[in-house]
Amino acid sequence: MTTTTLDTLSAKPLLDWYDRHHRDLPWRVSPGMAARGVRADPYRVWLSEVMLQQTTVQAVKPYFEKFLRRWPDVTDLAAADNDEVMAAWAGLGYYARARNLKKCAEAVAREHGGVFPDTEEDLKSLPGIGDYTAAAVAAIAFNRQAAVMDGNVERVISRLYAIETPLPGAKPLMKAKVALLTPPGRPGDFAQAMMDLGATICTPKRPACSLCPFRDACQALKLSDPELFPVKAAKKEKPVRHGAAFIAVTREGEILLRRRGESGLLGGMTEVPTTAWTARLDGETSAAAAPFAAGWQASGTVTHVFTHFELRLAIWRAAIAQKPDMDDGWWEPVTNLETQALPTVMKKAIAAAIPLAFKTSRALT
Q1: Nearest-CA neighbor of 334 among 301, 69, 260, 320?
Q2: d(CA 253, CA 275)
């Protein structure tokens, strides 16, 4: 009987496991499909990888399918209206991804004739594509031997090698280990197998180690508790910022909206008027900071957690008999709000003032 060690570790057990237990995902070419001659579509791979950053598979699926229905290939997305793309992305979060998604599609259409480049280096020259996305697209779409490392892969590798260096400092060592393990024959399947293993077997809590194809070699299982890995540096407490949001509603059921500047947090997205809060500074919270004089009534407070801070918005509502003159913004029927590029925090603010503004609670998730 041969004992598997880290010195003799092969990707074969993982790939055998993946052939039997892979997840069926709308952007994925399964091993069975590949055996029938189906090839990965770089556009689908890229679109899914951008959407999946900091977002769960379940949350991404409906957005991915909606994008494909509206923009079936990269040239369609490149030609799309920017506001329509932002509206379709609304609710998925991390809105810089949506802005870069559109810029990248335009670059592929304009500079590459609508065909994605097939190397990591050339992919990284495109807007919004960093090391991870370039490696993922190169491996999965073009079968390049690239080391792909997301959060799931970090967890698997940290446990497999019992890496005690805390994240994020351990990332270079982890990536080197992934590169050594990645087989030249099926690098794309290997990358997806590692992701699936981390998502379904090597989970953060209560991993199913008895089912893991790497169980005989896993150092965390032999020497310690797998749940202790990956080791993470102590988290800093998120600062809390304060501001106010103003929901003005006409007798005809219209609400005042405006568009944020293209740069910065929530850039290019639609919002209700708010005070000048940022990740570093508080904004005013009283009705005195409203965009115009009216009978503003307090409508509670909403909380929204961003990556680096927590925001608490005081909500003010006013019923408007006559629309004031405004330098910017527009009046949108409440019935049309679900078609607007409103980020989740703005949907929360509107719902606090107008509980039935959105038809489904899903708009606030």
Answers
A1: 320
A2: 23
CA distance 202 to 226: 9
Q: How far from 103 is each of 78, 88, 98, 125, 276, CA to CA, in Å?
A: 8, 16, 9, 12, 28
Look up residue 159 and give its two tokens: 């446990």
Q: Give residue-wise pLDDT tens across range 263-273.
A: 889 989 999 99
The H or E element spanning position 242 is: strand 240-250
From the list 152, 217, 144, the residue with the least C-alpha distance to 183 is: 144
Q: Which residues form the catalytic set?
A: 49
Contacts of 147 (CB under 8 A, 6+ apart): 135, 175, 176, 178, 179, 182
pTM score, two decimals?
0.83
Query: Is 269 within 8 Å of 95 (Cβ atoms)?
Result: yes
CA distance 228 to 222: 13
3-state secondary structure of 345: helix
pLDDT in tens, 345-355: 999 999 999 99
- How many Å separate Cα 231 from the centre of its chain? 23
